[in-house]
Fold this sequence. Notes:
Blueprint: H1 12-17, H2 19-22, H3 30-38, E1 46-50, H4 57-66, E2 74-77, E3 90-96, H5 102-113, E4 117-122, H6 125-130, E5 136-138, H7 149-163, H8 171-185, H9 192-199, E6 203-209, H10 213-227, E7 232-236, H11 247-250, E8 255-261, H12 267-282, E9 288-291, H13 297-319, H14 327-336
Parallel strand pairs: 1-2, 1-3, 3-4, 4-5, 6-7, 6-8, 8-9
Bound molecules: 5-phosphoarabinonic acid.
Amino acid sequence: MQENVDITRNSMSSLVDAFFSLLAKKRLQENTQQIAEKLAIPKTEGICTVGMGGSSIAGQIAIALLNDSSSIPLTFVRDYQLPAFIDDRWTVITVSYSGTTEETLSAYNDADSRGCELFSVTTGGELGALCSSERTHVLPKGIQPRAALPMILAAVLPLMQCLLGNRPTDFEHLSEKLTDRQKELKGSMKEPQEIATHIHQRIPAFIGWRHLAPVAYRAKTQINENAKSTAYSLELPEANHNEIEASAAYANQSIAPILLRSTYEDEQTRRRFEATSKILEQESVEVESIQFSGESKLEEVLYAIQYLDAVSVRLADIRGVNPMGVPQISLLKAILAGNIEL
Ligand code: PA5
């Protein structure tokens, strides 16, 4: 029987507090892991993750973490169809928390028609019915898809690691370790409430590098969905070749740049962040810089996501909006499904 999340009735804030414990909520089934191990490179020649919104970000994060070591191409798709280069030598991991998202179902069928090896991560729905049970990682039901990120990542990353012939991360151990260290870290950083207050009435621009670039994107989407507010995300070094020219407009346009700093930055990147900060300050822009750390890039990513998720929930609170519901997303889905006419 499928075990649901017992914190369902609680708020988004308690789900964010439970972020590290959710990493250990549902481990990859042994037979699913074995299938992935059998398909490992050289059999698999490329891996593609598919999903939308809260269900897509785990794939993007896993890819950012694995890109440094993977000998095969890794890509993610947020669309109805896959790029033409994906063929039957590829393995596709489709993620939809509800199992009913039309883009994801369409991309699943596209991958199937090309003869790709398929895995799914879902609570059920049509996606759950499409994929064979031993290739489906069934998630506990009852929370918002974006709050399920720790559970989704704890399935997608080990699946990808097995396909790459690597040892899968032990998320149970990691969950315990991060929960303990979270208490130690408290007090060494600004409270998320302070960052939320800083970006209230402003438009935050989260700026990340390498493995923190998807974290910047996640922060943007969490501000959108939880706090129902505008945000954007940028990536270094690319933003230094375009966005930096807009810095003179930042003060007037109430843009609040937030630099997501990593302990894994190389010297080049460290200088780049510092130069970016100086240029912004010369334009009288208040620059917020958050230093993250972790004993591995994965740990750093998880701390950063949990912290920024907390910022989005605090901002929702300040703005007096409900972080749980996503009425506009639901409305749009209903219109597209032909259930509502405007
Ligand atoms: O967090 C959300 O609610 C959304 O971003 C959903 O994840 C998105 O609409 C896709 O739905 P699902 O995750 O059920 O495939």
